[in-house]
Write a structure and sequence with these properties.
74% helix; mainly alpha; 145 residues; Hypothetical protein af1432
């Protein structure tokens, strides 16, 4: 939904349908591999777990679908195309909003500091959706002040 609603905020021209597919593919792999929270403690190996999950999940599909979804997943992970940059921006924007509008949510639980939010969310959102980052920065500043 974020991709459709916020498409006008992409830093460059995007294909919204591809972005939606990319986000869904990324999420299903994360669900299968187990997500590591952005501010949580990682036990390492997340990339390997996700690679294994992607291969297993996509391997269940006919060859053409396996290749298509595998390509979309890798494109998201690489973050180089306009579509991937916007998708990654939304992937960071959504939890930022959840934390802002729940009074701190996991940020409060994890004792996350202002500078950490700027470092972990800012570059990715800025790259794919600079106008959304401007808005998010204001919300983040007001949350921590």
């Amino acid at each position: 939904m974020y991709a459709w609603v916020l498409a006008d905020y992409a830093a460059a021209h995007i294909d919204v349908a591809r972005v939606v597919k990319m986000l869904l593919v990324h999420d299903i792999v994360e669900i299968d591999a187990g997500d590591t929270p952005l501010h949580g403690v990682s036990n390492g190996g997340q990339s390997e777990r996700e690679q294994g999950a992607a291969e297993r999940l996509f391997g269940l599909l006919p060859t053409a679908q396996c290749e298509e979804l595998g390509h979309l997943w890798r494109e998201f992970e690489d973050g180089q195309s306009n579509d991937a940059q916007f998708a990654k921006a939304l992937d960071r924007f959504q939890p930022l909003l959840a934390n802002i509008f729940t009074g701190g949510g996991t940020w409060s639980e994890g004792h996350v500091q202002y500078e950490q939010v700027l470092e972990r969310y800012g570059p990715t959102i800025q790259r794919g959706a600079p106008e959304l980052w401007k808005l998010a920065q204001a919300w983040v500043a007001s949350h921590f002040n």
